[in-house]
Amino acid sequence: MTDVLFVYGTLRRGWDNPYARRLGSEADWLGPATVRGSLVRNGPYLGYRPEPDGIVEGELWRLHSPEGAFLFLDDYEGPDYTRAVVQSISESGPCDAWIYLYKDYAAA
Q: Considering the domain 4-107 in this protein, what is its CATH number?
């Protein structure tokens, strides 16, 4: 399975929170990327959903230890989100990447 993570919200570079800082220390930034889908508001946060079709801008990160990283990332994202693999597009081409999917996207 892939060791690449696509982030679109508060885990991106430039955000100053403990989880974004930890991601920066436990992964290598690969650069900007996009995925097909859309974002919805989940309170003060964003949630990814695969429909309606559109372009979601974000970043790719290569996790040094996916198993360890997902322990703290799953905790940060909480029960409203689940991990899924999507195809992302970056300057280096397409690649599979994990993304946090907003679980309640059908109701959003």
A: 3.10.490.10
